[in-house]
Design goal:
The chain is mainly beta. The protein has three domains: 1-30; 34-138, Pectate Lyase C-like; 171-275. The chain contains two helices and 20 strands. The radius of gyration is 23 Å and the shape is flat. The chain starts with a helix and ends with a strand.
Length: 275
């Protein structure tokens, strides 16, 4: 028994030593304080945007000088490829980090896209670790945003034909947006909608998180689903509310109109009509 304990102690000491060496080497090689590089790409005109990144935040801004450009924060071995093909701005990420370097590089990089026009045909963003924020792009025909670990924030936009937003671990926030039938979801995170007007059906779901509504409306049906979380807020127009909570209180108006289904397993439901 004593021999087994001694072996375990020796193994533990070796592991601590290896861990200490890796941390020391990380500091020596500068992995904890990476040297960021700022790059600017001027690009030709385009109508579509396709972004696929592993570990970068994406920010859309209006170009004050009327020229399209992309500003990227990068590392020597973790950088971006920016190009325009077939009327589409394509941004991808190249990862040449060694495995030990990946253990110590924690910070997200940043990609800022400056757009000279107010309207674009399609916008597709997929980021594994990073946020996607658009507050100044006025109109998009098709909008699809997916963040695995990060937040999605869309403000002040008119979407014409297709709108889907998803965060696996992170929040989805929609504000001052007009859109057609829409699907919003967060697996571990909250969904917050403010002045979100939908011409069609609206489907919103979260597994572990809350759904917050402020002055939203739709011409079709609404469906809000949460496994563990509260569903609260205000809707603009009367409708037929069907609410269910396994563990929690329910408060909804008794009105007629398009169907609004609300269900949470563990949480409260509190919906009111806007004043």
């Amino acid at each position: 028994m004593k021999k087994a304990i001694a072996i375990i102690v020796v193994i533990a000491i070796v592991l601590v030593g290896v861990g200490g060496y890796l941390v020391w080497k990380g500091y020596q090689d500068g992995y904890f304080t990476p040297d960021y590089i700022s790059k600017e790409y001027e690009v030709e005109d385009f109508d579509n945007i396709n972004i696929n990144l592993e570990s970068s935040d994406v920010l859309f801004k209006k170009a004050s000088d009327g020229k399209a450009k992309v500003e990227c924060q990068e590392l020597e071995k973790l950088y971006h490829e920016v190009k325009v093909e077939d009327n589409t701005l394509i941004i991808t990420q190249v990862d040449n980090l060694e495995q030990i370097e990946k253990w110590f590089v924690f910070a997200n990089l940043k990609v800022t896209i400056y757009l000279p026009k107010d309207a674009y045909d399609s916008l597709k963003v997929n980021t594994s670790v990073g946020n996607c924020v658009s507050e100044e792009l006025a109109e998009v025909n098709k909008l699809n945003v997916e963040a695995t670990t990060g937040n999605v924030k869309i403000k002040n936009m008119n979407v014409l034909s297709e709108f889907n937003a998803q965060a696996t671990t992170g929040n989805v926030e929609i504000e001052n947006v007009n859109a057609p039938s829409s699907n919003l979801s967060a697996t571990t995170g909250n969904v917050k909608m403010t002045n979100f007007i939908v011409d069609g059906d609206l489907n919103v779901s979260t597994t572990t998180g809350n759904i917050k509504l402020t002055d939203i409306d739709s011409t079709g049906g609404m469906k809000f689903t949460a496994s563990t979380g509260n569903i609260k807020g205000t809707v603009k127009s009367p409708r037929q509310f069907m609410a269910k909570s396994s563990t929690g209180t329910i408060h909804v108006p008794y009105t007629a109109g398009p169907l609004c289904e609300i269900e949470t397993s563990t949480g409260n439901i509190d919906i009111q009509l806007s004043a």
